Amino acid sequence: MTKEYKTITEIAGPLIFLEKTEPVGYGELVHINLPDGTTKRGQVLDTSTDVVAVQVFEGTGGLNEESGVVFSGETIKLPVSKDMLGRILSGAGEPLDGGPRIVPEDRVDVNGASMNPYSRMPPEDFIQTGISTIDGTNTLVRGQKLPIFSGSGLPHNEIALQIARQAKVPGSDEPFAVVFAAMGITNEEAQYFMEDFEKTGALERAVVFLNLADDPAVERIITPRMALTAAEYLAYEHDMHVLVILTDITNYCEALRQMGAAREEVPGRRGYPGYMYTDLASLYERAGVIKGLKGSVTQFSILTMPGDDITHPIPDLSGYITEGQIVVSRELHMKGIYPPINVLPSLSRLMNSGIGEGKTRDDHKAVSDQMYAGYAEGRDLRGLVAIVGKEALSERDQKILEFADLFEDRFVRQARDEDRSIEDTLQVGWDILSELPEALLTRIDNKYIEKYHPAHKSN
C-alpha cells in the first residue's frame, strides 16, 4: 500500500522539505496532492535520516502543510518510441504540437547509464554541417561533443537551426536524426523554432524539446536529460546517428544556481554550485560511439558567455570537458557577416581524425592550416595598419592583409540557407588562396598545389 506523507515542514522557492519519512531514494519521482485535488510532480533532491528535500517541477504555488506527498519508488523516466521523430515536446516530454501522447516502446531513466570508457570507439567519421568555418577549419566528427561559445544578441539560434537542417554524413545512407532541446527560451523564440522546423521539413527527422522561460527552473534541469535519453534510444536501439543540439547551456546553469541557492548550499565561483563541473560532465559525456553498436550520439551545445567573457565559469568548465569549441564573434557580426564564426579561437580537437583521403579530401588539412595561418597574420597586420598606415606595409604584407578580408567575405560569409558541401568549402578555400603568390603557400605540399590550385587546374 502506497503511503502519503503530510509532514511538510518548509517550502523554499521550488523546494519542499519533509520529515519522518521512511527511507527514500535519491532522484525518486514524487507526486504531491494539493488540498484542491490537483497533483504536482517532483523529484527527491536530497535525502537523509531526518529530512527529505523535494524539488517541485510545476512550482510550489498552492502547496501548504496539508498537501500530501507520495513517493513513487522509481526515478523519472521518458516514454520513448521511434514515433518521437517529427514531434515537438515540452521540456518535461509532454506534447506541444497538438498531437497525441507518444505510445511508448519503452520507458527509460532520463539520467542514462554510464558509458564504460573502454567501450568507447575513437570518433573518426566526418559530419558535414554545410557551414564552411566548421567543416573546413573546425571539423565536427561523429561522436564528438563540440560546444558553440556565443554572446547575447548574436545569431547562435540561427546557426543552430541551420546545422539542424543541413547536418548529414556525406555519401552515407545510414539513418540520421536530430534531437533539438531549447532551455529557457521566450515564447517568440519557441514559435520561431517550431515554424522553421515545420517550414523547412527538418522536423521529419527531428525530436524537439522546448522549455520556455516562464516554465519552472526545475524543468530546465530535466530538459537536456530528456533530449539525451531520446537520442541514446534512437542511436542504440534503432541504429541511428543522432546529432543533439542543446541551447542555451547558460540558462541551464542559471537554473542550477537557483536550485543551489534554494537549498542554501555554499556557493562556488560567481555563485554557481561547486558541483557544476560534474553536473555538466554528466550531460556532455553522454556523447560518443560505442563498440559493437551501429548508432552514435554527437553533441552541439550552445552557450552564451555572460559579458562575452570566455573565462566565465560556464564556458571555462565546458572547455575542460568538451573536445574544442566554436566561437561566435561580435566583431564579425557587427560587420554584417553571417555566420560570424571566428576560426582563430575556435578549435576541434578531433578534426584530424575525421578528415583526409577517404573521409573528406586529401588536401583538407593543408588548406585549413594555410588559411588559418594567413588569416591570423592578416588580423595582426590590421593592428599594425591602424598605427603606421597601409602604405608602410611591404607588398607581401599587403597581399596577406587583402587575404584576411577575402577570407571573411568569401569563406566565412554564407547565406542563412546556403548548404556548402565539403568540396564547395575547399574550392572556396583554394579560390581565395590563389590570390596569394604561390611562394607564400608554405603550408601546402606542392603535389596539392599542382592538383587543386586554380592556376594549375586550368592548364
UniProtKB/TrEMBL annotation:
Its biological purpose: Component of the A-type ATP synthase that produces ATP from ADP in the presence of a proton gradient across the membrane. The B chain is a regulatory subunit.
Question: Which Gene Ontology BP annotations are present?
Answer: proton motive force-driven plasma membrane ATP synthesis
Query: What are the leading ranks of the lineage?
Result: Archaea, Methanobacteriati, Methanobacteriota, Stenosarchaea group, Methanomicrobia
Which HAMAP family does this chain map to?
Answer: ATP_synth_B_arch
Domain (ATPase F1/V1/A1 complex alpha/beta subunit N-terminal) spans 8-73
Q: Which UniProt keywords apply?
A: ATP synthesis, Cell membrane, Hydrogen ion transport, Ion transport, Membrane, Transport
Q: Which family does it belong to?
A: Belongs to the ATPase alpha/beta chains family.
Q: Name a GO molecular-function annotation.
A: ATP binding
Residues covered by the ATP synthase A/B type C-terminal domain: 354-452
Name under which the protein is recorded:
A-type ATP synthase subunit B
Query: Which compartments does it reside in?
Result: Cell membrane
Quaternary structure, from the entry: Has multiple subunits with at least A(3), B(3), C, D, E, F, H, I and proteolipid K(x).
Q: Which PANTHER family match?
A: V-TYPE PROTON ATPASE SUBUNIT B
What GO terms fall under cellular component here?
plasma membrane; proton-transporting two-sector ATPase complex, catalytic domain
Which organism does this record belong to?
Answer: Methanolobus tindarius DSM 2278
The ATPase F1/V1/A1 complex alpha/beta subunit nucleotide-binding domain sits at: 130-348
The protein's topology relative to the membrane is: Peripheral membrane protein
